[in-house]
């Protein structure tokens, strides 16, 4: 796909989002190749329109990837297998990306299940990704921690800052669309 200023791309929104993920991952690998020898870990953020586009759960609570997660893993494999990037990221693809979303516990006792919800980001939940991103930023920057791509439905809390975020990608329509 080629984007041309002033020409609409709305007819192939999924194609545009997929292209954005490819671009983000390629730039991530390029920056990582430059920064890793200096001991700097590269992070990328992806803001999405709906949690279900990244991850969902079946009735038994088993997680599955939504289309953004599937596209991410396809693109990651593509670039990770290019000769100049091979072995640059020594972690499994499923370990290098995760989401930070508000969760809603539905039901009681052993019948309770977690439902990931689209939110404004105001409600922070005590899950491992939240803890890593919001509470243990120094650990997030450790090269031995595989997480490098963070998916979120909304902006991370006000005041969240990390100097190692080198790319930000928005996979959602803007108000002008």
Please tell me about this protein's structure.
With 177 residues, the chain is of the alpha/beta class. 30% of the residues lie in helices and 21% in strands. The strands form 3 sheets. A 4-stranded parallel β-sheet has the order 4-7-1-8, with helices on both faces. It has a two-stranded antiparallel sheet with strand order 2-3. The protein is globular and about 40 Å long. The two termini are 19 Å apart. Residues 104-109 and 118-126 have low confidence and may be disordered.
What tags apply to this protein structure?
177 residues; four-stranded parallel sheet; 5 helices; globular
Task: Briefly summarize what is shown.
The protein contains five helices and eight strands, in the order αβββααβββααββ. It has helices at 13-35, 67-80, 93-96, 128-135, 137-140; strands at 43-48, 55-57, 63-65, 97-100, 102-106, 113-117, 149-152, 165-171.
Lay out the secondary structure:
Layout: H1 13-35, E1 43-48, E2 55-57, E3 63-65, H2 67-80, H3 93-96, E4 97-100, E5 102-106, E6 113-117, H4 128-135, H5 137-140, E7 149-152, E8 165-171
Parallel strand pairs: 1-7, 1-8, 4-7
Antiparallel strand pairs: 2-3, 5-6
Helix pairs in contact: 1-2
Distance between the termini: 19 Å
Helix content: 25-40%
Strand order of the largest sheet: 4-7-1-8
What is the H-and-E element order?
HEEEHHEEEHHEE
Tally of individual helices: 5
Task: Tell me, rounded to a whole number, the average pLDDT.
Answer: 79
Number of strands: 8
Structure classification: alpha/beta
Computed over alpha carbons, the radius of gyration is: 17 Å
- Please summarize the sheet with the most strands: 4 strands, parallel
Strand residues, percent: 15-25%
Q: Which shape, going by the Cα principal axes?
A: globular
Poorly predicted tracts of residues: 104-109, 118-126
